Amino acid sequence: MRYQISGKQIDVGEALQTHVRTELGETFEKYAQRPTDSTVIFSRDAHYFICDTVVHLATGLTVQAKGQASDNIYAAFEKCREKMDKQLRRYKRRLKDHHKDRTSPVEYGAASSYVLAADEDEWESQDDAGLQPIIVAEMETRVPTLSVGDAVMQMELAGVAMLVFRNEKHGGVNVVHRRDDGNVGWIDPRNLS
Protein backbone atom coordinates (compact mmCIF):
# COMPACT_ATOMS: atom_id res chain seq x y z
CA MET A 1 0.00 0.00 0.00
CA ARG A 2 1.19 3.51 -0.79
CA TYR A 3 1.04 5.97 2.08
CA GLN A 4 0.94 9.74 1.79
CA ILE A 5 1.24 11.18 5.28
CA SER A 6 1.50 14.94 5.58
CA GLY A 7 0.69 17.83 7.85
CA LYS A 8 -0.77 21.25 7.24
CA GLN A 9 1.58 23.57 9.11
CA ILE A 10 2.49 20.64 11.37
CA ASP A 11 5.75 18.71 11.33
CA VAL A 12 4.92 15.02 10.90
CA GLY A 13 7.89 13.11 12.27
CA GLU A 14 9.11 9.65 11.34
CA ALA A 15 7.71 8.12 14.56
CA LEU A 16 4.17 9.28 13.75
CA GLN A 17 4.48 8.08 10.15
CA THR A 18 5.62 4.64 11.32
CA HIS A 19 2.74 4.50 13.83
CA VAL A 20 0.20 5.43 11.12
CA ARG A 21 1.54 2.80 8.68
CA THR A 22 1.50 0.08 11.34
CA GLU A 23 -1.98 0.84 12.69
CA LEU A 24 -3.64 1.29 9.28
CA GLY A 25 -2.01 -1.91 8.05
CA GLU A 26 -3.37 -3.85 11.04
CA THR A 27 -6.85 -2.37 10.63
CA PHE A 28 -7.16 -3.34 6.99
CA GLU A 29 -5.49 -6.72 7.46
CA LYS A 30 -8.10 -7.56 10.11
CA TYR A 31 -10.90 -7.14 7.59
CA ALA A 32 -8.99 -8.81 4.72
CA GLN A 33 -9.23 -5.72 2.55
CA ARG A 34 -6.61 -4.83 -0.03
CA PRO A 35 -5.99 -1.10 0.16
CA THR A 36 -4.09 0.40 -2.74
CA ASP A 37 -3.23 3.80 -1.31
CA SER A 38 -3.99 6.00 1.65
CA THR A 39 -3.80 9.71 2.30
CA VAL A 40 -3.48 10.89 5.90
CA ILE A 41 -3.47 14.63 6.58
CA PHE A 42 -2.86 16.11 10.02
CA SER A 43 -3.86 19.68 10.78
CA ARG A 44 -4.59 21.96 13.67
CA ASP A 45 -7.70 24.00 14.45
CA ALA A 46 -7.27 26.21 17.53
CA HIS A 47 -6.38 23.73 20.29
CA TYR A 48 -7.57 20.61 18.39
CA PHE A 49 -5.44 18.22 16.39
CA ILE A 50 -7.33 16.88 13.35
CA CYS A 51 -6.64 13.77 11.31
CA ASP A 52 -8.32 13.23 7.89
CA THR A 53 -7.79 9.81 6.33
CA VAL A 54 -8.88 8.52 2.92
CA VAL A 55 -8.09 4.93 1.88
CA HIS A 56 -8.79 3.55 -1.59
CA LEU A 57 -9.51 -0.19 -1.71
CA ALA A 58 -8.59 -2.52 -4.58
CA THR A 59 -12.31 -3.08 -5.24
CA GLY A 60 -12.68 0.59 -6.19
CA LEU A 61 -14.45 1.65 -2.99
CA THR A 62 -13.16 4.43 -0.73
CA VAL A 63 -13.13 4.55 3.07
CA GLN A 64 -12.89 7.97 4.71
CA ALA A 65 -12.80 9.09 8.34
CA LYS A 66 -11.94 12.15 10.40
CA GLY A 67 -10.85 12.36 14.03
CA GLN A 68 -9.98 15.21 16.35
CA ALA A 69 -8.54 15.43 19.83
CA SER A 70 -7.23 18.15 22.08
CA ASP A 71 -4.73 15.83 23.80
CA ASN A 72 -2.17 15.15 21.10
CA ILE A 73 -1.78 14.25 17.46
CA TYR A 74 -1.69 10.49 18.20
CA ALA A 75 -5.09 10.67 19.92
CA ALA A 76 -6.56 12.39 16.85
CA PHE A 77 -5.24 9.58 14.63
CA GLU A 78 -6.59 6.91 17.00
CA LYS A 79 -10.07 8.45 16.92
CA CYS A 80 -9.90 8.54 13.14
CA ARG A 81 -8.72 4.91 12.98
CA GLU A 82 -11.50 3.82 15.38
CA LYS A 83 -14.12 5.42 13.12
CA MET A 84 -12.63 3.68 10.10
CA ASP A 85 -12.54 0.38 12.00
CA LYS A 86 -16.21 0.79 12.93
CA GLN A 87 -17.17 1.48 9.29
CA LEU A 88 -15.28 -1.57 8.07
CA ARG A 89 -16.73 -3.77 10.81
CA ARG A 90 -20.25 -2.61 9.94
CA TYR A 91 -19.79 -3.43 6.26
CA LYS A 92 -17.42 -6.41 6.56
CA ARG A 93 -19.91 -8.98 5.27
CA ARG A 94 -21.11 -6.77 2.44
CA LEU A 95 -17.57 -5.84 1.45
CA LYS A 96 -16.66 -9.52 1.21
CA ASP A 97 -19.87 -10.36 -0.70
CA HIS A 98 -19.26 -7.38 -2.97
CA HIS A 99 -15.77 -8.67 -3.73
CA LYS A 100 -17.02 -12.21 -4.54
CA ASP A 101 -19.74 -11.01 -6.91
CA ARG A 102 -17.56 -8.47 -8.66
CA THR A 103 -14.73 -9.96 -10.71
CA SER A 104 -13.27 -6.57 -11.62
CA PRO A 105 -12.94 -3.29 -9.71
CA VAL A 106 -15.74 -0.72 -9.72
CA GLU A 107 -15.89 1.06 -13.07
CA TYR A 108 -15.71 4.84 -13.09
CA GLY A 109 -16.87 7.18 -15.82
CA ALA A 110 -15.84 10.78 -16.26
CA ALA A 111 -18.26 13.66 -15.71
CA SER A 112 -17.99 17.44 -15.56
CA SER A 113 -18.31 19.10 -12.19
CA TYR A 114 -18.93 22.82 -11.77
CA VAL A 115 -18.76 25.19 -8.81
CA LEU A 116 -21.24 28.06 -9.07
CA ALA A 117 -20.98 31.48 -7.42
CA ALA A 118 -23.08 31.76 -4.27
CA ASP A 119 -24.13 35.41 -4.66
CA GLU A 120 -27.51 35.67 -6.46
CA ASP A 121 -27.03 39.45 -6.97
CA GLU A 122 -24.06 38.66 -9.22
CA TRP A 123 -26.20 36.20 -11.20
CA GLU A 124 -28.87 38.80 -11.88
CA SER A 125 -26.37 41.49 -12.88
CA GLN A 126 -24.87 39.15 -15.50
CA ASP A 127 -28.09 38.71 -17.45
CA ASP A 128 -31.28 40.77 -17.44
CA ALA A 129 -33.33 37.72 -18.46
CA GLY A 130 -33.03 36.04 -15.06
CA LEU A 131 -30.72 33.99 -12.92
CA GLN A 132 -27.58 33.04 -14.79
CA PRO A 133 -25.05 31.47 -12.42
CA ILE A 134 -21.39 32.34 -12.70
CA ILE A 135 -19.13 29.30 -13.02
CA VAL A 136 -16.30 29.71 -10.54
CA ALA A 137 -14.54 26.39 -11.24
CA GLU A 138 -14.81 23.56 -13.72
CA MET A 139 -13.27 20.15 -13.06
CA GLU A 140 -13.65 16.49 -13.85
CA THR A 141 -15.14 14.05 -11.36
CA ARG A 142 -15.53 10.28 -11.33
CA VAL A 143 -18.94 8.59 -11.38
CA PRO A 144 -18.89 4.93 -10.25
CA THR A 145 -21.07 2.16 -11.71
CA LEU A 146 -22.67 0.45 -8.69
CA SER A 147 -25.81 -1.29 -7.48
CA VAL A 148 -28.05 0.77 -5.19
CA GLY A 149 -26.95 -1.20 -2.12
CA ASP A 150 -23.29 -0.72 -3.00
CA ALA A 151 -23.89 3.00 -3.57
CA VAL A 152 -25.40 3.37 -0.08
CA MET A 153 -22.47 1.44 1.38
CA GLN A 154 -19.97 3.64 -0.52
CA MET A 155 -21.76 6.79 0.68
CA GLU A 156 -21.52 5.59 4.29
CA LEU A 157 -17.87 4.49 3.97
CA ALA A 158 -16.86 7.79 2.38
CA GLY A 159 -18.79 9.79 4.98
CA VAL A 160 -20.53 11.95 2.40
CA ALA A 161 -24.13 13.22 2.39
CA MET A 162 -24.79 12.39 -1.28
CA LEU A 163 -23.43 10.09 -3.99
CA VAL A 164 -24.11 10.27 -7.73
CA PHE A 165 -23.64 6.90 -9.46
CA ARG A 166 -24.48 4.98 -12.61
CA ASN A 167 -26.93 2.16 -11.84
CA GLU A 168 -25.53 -1.29 -12.73
CA LYS A 169 -28.93 -2.60 -13.80
CA HIS A 170 -29.86 -0.07 -16.44
CA GLY A 171 -26.88 2.28 -16.80
CA GLY A 172 -28.87 5.38 -15.83
CA VAL A 173 -27.61 8.08 -13.50
CA ASN A 174 -28.97 7.75 -9.93
CA VAL A 175 -28.45 9.58 -6.64
CA VAL A 176 -28.50 8.33 -3.05
CA HIS A 177 -28.52 10.92 -0.28
CA ARG A 178 -28.78 11.24 3.49
CA ARG A 179 -32.18 12.73 4.38
CA ASP A 180 -32.80 15.16 7.24
CA ASP A 181 -34.71 12.44 9.12
CA GLY A 182 -31.62 10.17 9.08
CA ASN A 183 -32.88 7.79 6.40
CA VAL A 184 -31.36 7.34 2.95
CA GLY A 185 -33.15 8.65 -0.13
CA TRP A 186 -32.73 7.18 -3.62
CA ILE A 187 -33.44 9.16 -6.78
CA ASP A 188 -33.91 7.14 -9.98
CA PRO A 189 -35.24 9.26 -12.87
CA ARG A 190 -36.09 6.11 -14.89
CA ASN A 191 -38.82 5.17 -12.38
CA LEU A 192 -40.88 8.28 -13.21
CA SER A 193 -44.09 7.25 -14.95
From TrEMBL:
The keyword Cytoplasm applies. One of its GO terms (molecular function) is ribosomal small subunit binding. Keywords: Cytoplasm, Translation regulation. SUPFAM superfamilies: Ribosome binding protein Y (YfiA homologue). GO terms for cellular component: cytosolic small ribosomal subunit. It comes from the Bacteria. GO terms for biological process: negative regulation of translational elongation. It is found in: Cytoplasm. Residues 132-185 form the Sigma 54 modulation/S30EA ribosomal protein C-terminal domain. Coiled coil: none annotated. Interacts with 100S ribosomes. Associates exclusively with 100S ribosomes, which are dimers of 70S ribosomes. Belongs to the HPF/YfiA ribosome-associated protein family. Long HPF subfamily. PANTHER family: 30S RIBOSOMAL PROTEIN. Required for dimerization of active 70S ribosomes into 100S ribosomes in stationary phase; 100S ribosomes are translationally inactive and sometimes present during exponential growth. This is Ribosome hibernation promoting factor.
